[in-house]
Amino acid sequence: MNILILGSGGREHALAWAVKQNPKCDRLIVAPGNAGIAGLADCAILDILDGDTVAAFATENAIDLVIIGPEAPLAAGVADRLRAAGLKVFGPSQAAARLEASKVFTKEICAAVGAPTATWARFTDAVTARAYVEEKGAPIVVKADGLAAGKGVIVAMNLAEALTAIEDMFGGAFGAAGAEIIIEEFMEGEEASFFVLCDGQTAIPMGTAQDYKRAGDGDTGPNTGGMGAYSPAPVITPEIIDRVMKEIVLPTLTEMVRRGTPYQGVLFAGLMIGDGQPRLVEYNCRFGDPETQALMLRLGAQALDLMQATAEGRLDRVSAHWADDHALTVVMAAKGYPGPYAKGSEIHGLDLLSEDSWQIVFHSGTTSRESATVADGGRVLSVTCRGRTLREAHERAYQMVDTIDWPEGFSRRDIGWRAL
Ligand code: AMP
Ligand code: GLY
Q1: What is residue 315's predicted lDDT score, i.e. its pLDDT?
Q2: pLDDT tens digits for 197-229?
Q3: Which of 9, 42, 115, 161 has the greatest number of CB atoms lying within 10 Å of its CB?
Q4: Which domain CATH number covers 162?
């Protein structure tokens, strides 16, 4: 098979690595890719938000399967355009991607099917939003309706923060994404990521993980895209999986079919589990980053079979086989992230690290300059290890982090502590 993956982060490096483990994969192209991905696939410069460009490229290169990594091309309708051109695609249509692209849409689906989630209200003006927050009090959560690169959610611990968030959003801080906002109940509990593959009809659970969102040790500092993760997430027990499938995911997917917009791809349910009850925080229409780095190291070659079966509507005939193992990924980010940071510093020591199916440094944001690997983003490396226990994976990962010589970077030292 010839396979094209769209994206350039650690998630796409992990997907590319897993796809490459499968002997079915003949040629692998990643657009645009990064310096790490270039070590195992051909990288192509393409405007991945432009469906026509991607469709022409895929047809020219006799691509058998396109795997769409990030949400932006999905929300832009790239999957629709590729399917219209007769290509096989892993990733939802623009209409189905609204489960991530519009928080109001997801809340309406939850209301229609009775899926447990935080109580909420929607607003298109600051005056009524302010009055609502003043009536409800803090803590409370303010969210821009649309995609805001992970920054459109303010968990306000006091009233002043909530009021500032409302001013900012209606003041245009997130552009059109903040033209409508939702304000919702603050949920207590433990957060975890649950992944489900869906081919439009059949849905199968595809692994669990837990993500560390704050920049600093002990869950301090600003929210980020994710500073580390591990899989499996012990808080998502088999009983919780049953309940989430029955009460949240399957009703959602049935409602999408009923509306004529079946969901095909991976559905990422962000869950809050409090007092043993799972509630939906949000849906994403793609794999999580950095959760995928841990998931793919555990799944290996079968990831391709599962994504292909998803794209071909054959999920009723496959299942994911998990070993009794654990994987953990530590993100190394540029100092300053998630605020302003410098690009262009050199990273040394990567050549001292061996790479096998137990340990890999996935690249999240790198480029090459002559023979050097150079930081080219906020999140730069995802150091990922597998072990028979989480502790083993944790120790191995931090040994690798300590071998990498990159003074301009930082990482959290406590990834995995919640489960250890
Ligand atoms: P989201 O972009 O929707 O994932 O939100 C970012 C983060 O904000 C989530 O991962 C949670 O940690 C937090 N969050 C969002 N909604 C709520 C809520 N209703 N209660 C508590 N925390 C929340
Ligand atoms: N790590 C969370 C996300 O990918 O949205």
Answers
A1: 97
A2: 999 999 999 999 999 999 999 999 988 999 999
A3: 9
A4: 3.30.1490.20
CA max distance for the chain: 60
β-pairing, 65-68 vs 2-7, is: parallel
Cα of 239 from ligand 2 centre, angstroms = 24
Candidate from 227, 231, 291, 384 with most ligand 2 atoms within 8 A of CB, to mutate: 291
**Which residue range is the domain that position 381 belongs to?**
326-410
Same domain flag for 303 and 212: yes
Containing 126, the helix (H) or strand (E) segment is helix 126-136
Q: Listing from the earlier edge strand, what are the strands of the sheet with 42-43?
A: 42-43, 27-32, 2-7, 65-68, 89-90
Atom of ligand 1 nearest to the CA of 186: 20
What is the total count of domains within the chain? 4
Q: Using 50, 70 and 90 to split pLDDT, how confident is the model at 172?
A: confident
Instruction: Decide whether any atom of ligand 2 lies within 6 Å of the 71 Cβ.
Output: no
Ligand nearest to the Cα of 229, by number: 2
Same domain, 208 and 310: yes
Question: What CATH number is attached to the domain comprising 273?
Answer: 3.30.470.20
Residue nearest to atom 5 of ligand 2 (CA): 288
Using CA positions, which residue lies closest to atom 13 of ligand 1?
A: 155
Looking at 276, 292, 317, the residue that finishes a domain is: 317
Q: Is the pLDDT of residue 150 over 80?
A: no
* 97: in domain: no
| Distance, CA of 101 to CA of 396 (rounded, Å) | 37
What is the average pLDDT across 249-258?
Answer: 98
For residues 228 and 305, state if they share a domain. yes
